[in-house]
Design a protein that fits this description.
The protein has about 210 residues and is α/β, with parallel strands linked by helices. The chain is built from six helices and ten strands; from the N terminus they run E-E-H-E-E-H-H-E-E-H-E-E-H-H-E-E. The chain has an eight-stranded mixed sheet with strand order 5-4-2-6-7-8-9-10, sandwiched between helices. A two-stranded parallel sheet has the order 1-3.
Length: about 210
């Protein structure tokens, strides 16, 4: 098991984030921050499997914390909830994992970390239907990471418009969560990681850059 000394920030506790948090906190992690300003809605229950009907109307970070508490994760890992969005002025220290569903939110996250020496690793998970992608940046402050903003930050209308609650997307977040954990584990062990992982799960086509 990899030991993670850094705090972990999971930004967005929807499809990808909900699939990630339980597995993430099974690692040897001492501190996890959950960021999301949304509430649980009826349509989230089918595709975001940590939530229950009794969670509808609760802030997602509170419902996610309740889930982790039921799993007794909070006995060994400090889980800190932020019922708010990350903005360019948000102070983040540690590993940052983007699980958001809009490019505008990604741009705000990037603005918060791109000049921040306290962030050693940034993982940006993306999903549209059965297509998934994980972009990974070591030391975002490094000028060599300009490819990220140049090639992978664009307007929301250029991205996928597949609805986040469509039943067929239940499995892609799980696969993507596994990729995120793999990259995080490789980082903790100081082993090489790839910058860009992409897959179409319908056709089983995978691309690694």
């Amino acid at each position: 098991m990899a030991h993670i000394n850094w705090p972990i920030h999971v930004i967005g506790v929807g499809g990808i984030g909900a699939a990630l948090i339980h597995e993430l906190t099974k690692l040897d992690i001492h501190e996890v921050h959950l960021w999301d300003d949304d509430e649980v809605e009826d349509h989230n229950l089918k595709a975001q499997t940590i939530y229950r009907p009794s969670d509808v109307g609760k802030p997602k970070v509170v419902a996610a914390y309740d889930f982790l508490e039921r799993q007794e994760v909070t006995k060994t890992c400090q889980v800190i909830c932020h019922a708010e969005q990350v903005t360019e002025s948000t102070q983040l220290t540690g590993v940052v994992i983007s699980c958001v569903d809009s490019m505008l939110s990604r741009c705000k996250i990037w603005d918060a970390i791109k000049w921040n020496p306290g962030v050693p690793l940034y993982l940006d998970g993306r999903m549209g239907g059965e297509e998934i992608q994980l972009l990974t940046l070591l030391n975002p402050i490094n000028p060599n990471n300009e490819w990220y903003s140049a090639d992978w930050l664009f307007d929301d209308d250029e991205g996928s418009d597949d609805p986040c609650a469509e039943p067929r997307i239940i499995h892609p977040p799980t696969v993507l969560a596994g990729w995120i954990l793999t990259q995080l584990t490789l980082f903790a062990r100081q082993l090489p990681i790839r910058n860009n992982l992409r897959a179409n799960l319908r056709t089983m086509q995978f691309v690694v850059d």
